[in-house]
Amino acid sequence: MKKLFDTDNKEKETQKSEVDTAALARRMPNIKVFSGTSHPDLAQRIVDRLGIDLGKVVTKKFSNLETCVEIGESVRGEDVYIVQSGSGEVNDNLMELLIMINACKIASASRVTAVIPCFPYARQDKKDKNDKSEKEQNVEKWKSIEWKFRSRAPISAKLVANMLSVAGADHIITMDLHASQIQGFFDIPVDNLYAEPAVLKWIKENIAEWRNSIIVSPDAGGAKRVTSIADRLNVEFALIHKERRKANEVASMVLVGDVKDRVAILVDDMADTCGTICHAAEKLMEAGATKVYAILTHGIFSGPAISRINNACFEAVVVTNTIPQDRHMKDCSKVQCIDVSMMFAEAVRRTHNGESVSYLFSNVPY
C-alpha cells in the first residue's frame, strides 16, 4: 500500500513539473538561453529570473586544446541567447563563444544574440602614440621625425567585433563598454547597458553619509560617467589626472577638486591590477577625505590586485558580477558584489518581446 502511495506521489510530481515547464514555455515561447563556461552562475541567475531552463550544451577540449561545443537541443527557428563574459581565460572563452554562435546559426536558429557582460579586448579600441624606445631616445634623427610615427598596435576591439559578426551574431548585449564608440565597430545592433542605476541604488542603501560624498573619477576619461552619477545624487565631483609610463604603470597623479572632510567614492568602468585606484585612494586620503569607496563595473583583479586592495585604505571595493567574484570575495573582505543579472534578464526579455530596453538605462528592474 505504501509502495502504491509513493508511486502515485511520484507520478503527481512528474505531472506537476511537466505542467510547470509547459506554462513557462507558453510565457516565453521560442527562446533558448545557453551558457558558456566563463560565467555559468550569471547565466543561471538570468534564466531563473526569466522563469525558463538553461539550454543544454556540452563544451570540451580535445587533447591538443582545441575547443569543441555541442548544442544538446534543437534551436531551429528559436531566438537564441548565449551568455559568455570576457573574463578568466579570455582567448579560450572568446573562441568558445564564436563556436557556439556559429553552431546555433548553422542549426537554423532564427536569431542569435551574444550576451557579453564584460566585452573582451575593449581597452584596445584605438591607436595611441607609442612611447619611444631607448634606442630612439638616443638617436637624433629619430627625434626629428618622431611625430610621423604612430603606434603599430592593432585595434583589437574592432577585430573582435568583426569576428562576432562573421560567426553569425545578429545582436550584442553588453554592459559599460570601456569606450562607447565600440558600438560603432559593429554593423549589427548593440545594446550597451549601464551599471549606473544599480550603483546609485547601492550607494543610497549602503553609504549612510552619501549626501556628504563626492564622486571621483580616477582618470579624465571617466569624467562623463562620474558627472552623471554626481548629478543624480546631487553631489559634487572631482577627477584625478594621471600620466602613464606604460600599460599598468601609473607615473603621476594630480587631484582636481576638493575632497576635504567628505566621503570619496571612486567610480570607474574596470579595474585590472588596481594600481590606479589604489594610488587614487592614497591621494584622496592625503587630500583630507574621511572615507574612500571604490565602485567598479568590471572587477578583473589580475596579478597583485587583491593584495593591493587588502593593503589600501578602502572601506569597500564594490564590483558587479559581470565577472565571477566568488574567489576574490574570499581572498579579500573589502570586495563586495552588486548583482546585475536582473538587468541582463530584463534586456533579454524585452529584446525577445520586441520592447524598448532604454528603460534599463536609468532604472533597476525589480
From TrEMBL:
The keyword Transferase applies. It catalyses: D-ribose 5-phosphate + ATP = 5-phospho-alpha-D-ribose 1-diphosphate + AMP + H(+). It is an enzyme of class 2 (transferase). Its cofactor is Mg(2+). It comes from the Eukaryota. Its EC number is 2.7.6.1. Its main location: cytoplasm. One of its GO terms (molecular function) is magnesium ion binding. Keywords: ATP-binding, Kinase, Magnesium, Metal-binding, Nucleotide biosynthesis, Nucleotide-binding, Transferase. The keyword Nucleus does not apply. It is found in: Cytoplasm. GO terms for cellular component: cytoplasm; ribose phosphate diphosphokinase complex. GO terms for biological process: 5-phosphoribose 1-diphosphate biosynthetic process; purine nucleotide biosynthetic process; ribonucleoside monophosphate biosynthetic process. Pathway: Metabolic intermediate biosynthesis; 5-phospho-alpha-D-ribose 1-diphosphate biosynthesis; 5-phospho-alpha-D-ribose 1-diphosphate from D-ribose 5-phosphate (route I): step 1/1. Residues 31-132 form the Ribose-phosphate pyrophosphokinase N-terminal domain. Gene3D superfamilies: 3.40.50.2020. Catalyzes the synthesis of phosphoribosylpyrophosphate (PRPP) that is essential for nucleotide synthesis. Belongs to the ribose-phosphate pyrophosphokinase family. PANTHER family: RIBOSE-PHOSPHATE DIPHOSPHOKINASE FAMILY MEMBER, RIBOSE-PHOSPHATE PYROPHOSPHOKINASE 2. Homodimer. The active form is probably a hexamer composed of 3 homodimers. This is Ribose-phosphate pyrophosphokinase 2.
